[in-house]
Every structure is written in structure tokens, then in C-alpha cells.
Amino acid sequence: MAGLSFDNFQRNQFLASKSQGQPKATSTGTTIVGLKFDGGVLIAADTRSTQGPIVADKNCAKLHRIAPRIWCAGAGTAADTEAVTQLIGSNIELHSLSTGRQPRVVTTLQMLKQHLFKYQGHLGAYLIVAGVDPTGAHLMSVQAHGSTDVGFYLSLGSGSLAAMAVLESQWREGLSREEAIELAADAIEAGIWNDLGSGSNVDVCVMEVGKDAAYMRNYRTPNVREPKQQSYKFARGTTAVLKESIINVCDVEEQEVDVSA
Amino acid sequence: MNVVPQSNFKSAVSSDQDQQHRSNAVPSLPDTLRQQAGGAVPLSSQMGHQHPLQSRVEGWEATQRARQLEQYRQVFGIAEPMKREMELEIVERTDFNPLRREAHSLHEDILRGNDTSLDWEDVYPAATVASGMNVANDVHTKIEHKLQM
């Protein structure tokens, strides 16, 4: 069968029943937020990627481009968020080429929720979709089972509670672009400091009506690594060269042949 | 009218029904060589014990198609789904190409409304070579299926 292969399911069930234990699902840590402001919408994310208690990547990108003016922040299984947004991005491009119109955010949301619903939550993708289209700025979130939310400000991931506390207390209608960027970065920073699964830097992507999206990678870097006080590198030439020999592995000789003659 | 495929739980499996590859000598037995399942597989493995997603993903397209046709029937009458099914049947009969790897042609995709969408099935097509030998789904097998030999 094409697509997902279930060929080894029965074998794996059998092996799992014979072995000591099966691998457990790991909870993933992330803080992502999205909020609307006067004339646009923006999303922001932290950049820590974890595998259980281990920090796998200190500066990963959690903001994905679906269309030039529709971006998506992903929490949950990193590979699933990446693969799902790429597939829906391709579909959105095909759809807009077929209809000859700019892609709509609602179309993206519909495609995402239908795809995730089909896989019954086995694709662990929790997404905040934001974008601008001819109908204005839109902000929505999709959960792994296919349910969706619409709001003026949203947060997802393990650090969503810390981020939502900041958004709840400081968001108001009619924020300016700069105020909104600072508020989103503050909300992500609340996740970075108060949630163990989130950390490192803040990524922001701003979408304003009628303008191209502005992706600000590492907008804030509150966790810059301290430089070492001393250098422990050995200077060049510390190890003495006792002898040196170069072996010619092959010798190539070429001779020009005039073909035209 | 279902939105979601029903789980295809089987309480009984018969050896002479639903076999993809039947033995030429004894049609009630499976052709284990062409089945490419790595030898004789117990029939009990077809009963239950499937991943909960399997029946859902495999039956998804067919269920959506059935729901769509049922809705067409309710809105426009029986002529509409009949026309669509007949058009699809014409394309399927005239467009048979045993050398094509993927299941659908472009004409079929247009009639099904899939011509401007992608899914995992397009990115990861079914393997035609199962265990090193291309006997399970080769040209001859496809022609035999087509001609119901």
C-alpha cells in the first residue's frame, strides 16, 4: 500500500510482547504564541527542541512557511509539524495555481484540519496558523485531532500557560506593530524562563495586510553562551613532526590526440 | 452515509475468498510465491490485530467518494452520481496501462477532483518490488487481473 505502511505492525506487536518493554511516547516542550494587532498578525516561538530530558537542538526553527504570506508555528512532534506543513504548503500552492487566486488562510486551516482528522491524532501536530490574504489578517490554531480555534491571541505547547498569562494581562485591541512584537517576545520569554521544555531564543514572524511577511529569526537571544575565560586549545606546532613521507598513489600521464586530422 | 470508514474487523477469514493471488493449480489456495509475504502466512493474521489507523487510511478515499455520491443523489437525484460513476468507468476501461506504477491516471484524477492536490500516497508510492523479485505486481499480473484470468 502507498503512503503509510502497516506491514510490520503485527511483527512489532509480537516483538513488543516478547521483549522487556516498548518505547514510551515522549512529551515535547515548546512555547508558541500568535496574536493580532492593528493591521496584521504575528506568530512567535522559542527555539529549543527536546528529546525527553535531553536538549536536542538549541536553535531549531519552529516557524514554518506555508505560503509567502501564511506562516505556521508548530508544537508537538517536530517531524510531524514539519512534514504536515510542507505537504499543506505544496497543496496550497497547487490550489492557488489552479484557481489563479492568492491563497486564503481559511483554505489552509481547512486542509490542515481535514488532513489531521484523517490520521486520528497519530500525527502529533499542534499548530498556530496565521496569515494575511485579500480578506484581511487571520489567526487560528489546529490541534492534532483536527479541532480548531479562532482568537485574537493564542498560545500552544508546554509553555503555553506561562505565555498565556502574559498575553491575558497585556494584550488589548489596537496594538501597534512594535508593541505587538514586544508583547509576543515577552510571552515567549515567559515560556523560556518558566517552562523546562522551552528555551534559547525567540523567533518572530510578522504579517501585515498588503505587505510581505517579515521573518525575524532569533529576534531575541537571551541565552547567549558565555565565552570561555581561557583558551584551552593547543598552539600549532605543539606536537613535533618526527618524519614526513608522501606516497604517490597513482601517476596519470596524458597525451593530446588531434582527432580532426 | 459515513464520514469516517468503519473498522474492517473480521471474525472469519476464508481461504478461497478475497485472495489477491490465487494459485493456478488449486484456486482455493493462495499463491504464496506471488503473494510475496515471505512464505506461508497463517490466515489468522488477517483477523483483527491491525493498527487502528490502517482501515481508516485505506478506506478513506472510498468512504469520502461514497459520501459525496450519496449527497449528490440527495440533492440532484440519481442521474448525477450515475453520470459521474459512468464517466469514471469509461476512463478506467480505456486508460488501462499495466506499465504505469501509480494507481491513478491524470484523467481519473480530474474526474475524482484530485488533480490539484497531493498526499503521502503521491510522495511515497507503493513498492512494486516486494522482496527483490518483481512477481507480485508485474505487468502480467496486472493484465491477468484486468482480464479476470
What are the SSEs and their pairings?
The complex is a heterodimer of chains A (about 260) and B (about 150).
Chain A (H helix, E strand, L loop, with lengths): L8 H10 L13 E6 L2 E7 L2 E3 L2 E4 L5 E5 L2 E7 L1 H22 L5 H14 L6 E9 L2 E7 L5 E3 L2 E4 L3 H11 L6 H18 L7 E7 L5 E7 L41
Antiparallel strand pairs in A: 1-2, 1-10, 2-11, 3-4, 5-6, 6-7, 7-8, 8-9, 11-12
Helix pairs in contact in A: 2-3, 4-5
Chain B lengths: L31 H4 L16 H7 L1 H17 L2 H16 L11 H7 L7 H4 L15 H8 L3
Helix pairs in contact in B: 3-4, 4-5
In brief:
The complex is a heterodimer of chains A (261) and B (149). With 261 residues, chain A is an alpha+beta fold.
Number of strands of chain A: 12
- The separation of the N and C termini of chain A measures 60 Å
User: What percent strand of chain B?
Assistant: under 5%
- In helices, the fraction of residues of chain B equals 40-55%
Structural class of chain B: mainly alpha
Distance between the termini of chain B: 34 Å
Low-confidence stretches of chain B: none
Keywords (chain A): Cytoplasm, Hydrolase, Nucleus, Protease, Proteasome, Threonine protease
Subcellular location (chain A): Nucleus
Main location (chain A): nucleus
InterPro entries (chain A): Ntn_hydrolases_N, Pept_T1A_subB, Proteasome_bsu_C, Proteasome_bsu_CS, Proteasome_sua/b, Proteasome_suB-type
List keywords for this structure.
heterodimer, A: 261 residues, alpha+beta, five-stranded antiparallel beta sheet, 29% helix, B: 149 residues, mainly alpha, 42% helix, 0% strand, threonine-type endopeptidase activity (chain A), threonine protease (chain A), proteasome endopeptidase complex (chain A)
Describe the protein's architecture and organization.
The complex is a heterodimer of chains A (261) and B (149). With 261 residues, chain A is α+β, with helices and mostly antiparallel strands. Chain A has helices at 9-18, 78-99, 105-118, 160-170, 177-194; strands at residues 32-37, 40-46, 49-51, 54-57, 63-67, 70-76, 125-133, 136-142, 148-150, 153-156, 202-208, 214-220. In chain A, β5 and β6 form a beta hairpin. In chain A, α2 crosses α3 and α4 runs antiparallel to α5 (177-194). The mean pLDDT of chain A is 92. With 149 residues, chain B is mostly helical. Chain B has helices at residues 32-35, 52-58, 60-76, 79-94, 106-112, 120-123, 139-146. In chain B, α3 crosses α4 and α4 (79-94) packs antiparallel against α5. The chains are: A alpha+beta (261), B mainly alpha (149). Chain A: It holds the Pfam family Pr_beta_C. Chain A: It catalyses: Cleavage of peptide bonds with very broad specificity. Chain A: Residues 222-257 form the Proteasome beta subunit C-terminal domain. Chain A: Its EC number is 3.4.25.1. Chain A: This is proteasome endopeptidase complex.
